[in-house]
Amino acid sequence: MDKFTVKKAGLGIGILLYGGLLLLLGVEAGAEKAEGVSGQEYVVSYGDTLWGIAERHQEQAGKRDVREMVYTLRKINALDDGYLHPGQTLILPETW
C-alpha cells in the first residue's frame, strides 16, 4: 500500500466515526421530552399515527385544527419525524 491509500482509508474511518458521533448525539437530543409539560400518557399501538391520535382527541382540544395538534404532539414529545413505534409512550397535553 502506498501512503495515499493509507491516508484515504484513515480519512474514511475518521468520517465514519464523526458521523456516528453526530448520530448518537442527535438521538440523545431527540430523546428528551419537553420539560414542564403536563398531560396524559398515551401508549402507541400498532397502526397509530400522529394524525389519527390528534383526530381522536380533537373534541377535547375544542375542535382545533388537526395539523396544529400534530405539530404540538411532535414538539412536546421531541419527535424529529412522525414515525411512531408500538409501545412508545407519548404525552398528550392537557391543553392543546
UniProtKB/TrEMBL annotation:
InterPro entries to which the protein is assigned, alphabetical: LysM (IPR018392), LysM_dom_sf (IPR036779)
Pfam families tied to this protein: LysM (PF01476)
Residue span, LysM domain: 40-92
Gene3D superfamilies: LysM domain
Protein name listed in UniProt: LysM peptidoglycan-binding domain-containing protein
The organism of origin for this protein: Tumebacillus lacus
Taxonomic path: Bacteria, Bacillati, Bacillota, Bacilli, Bacillales
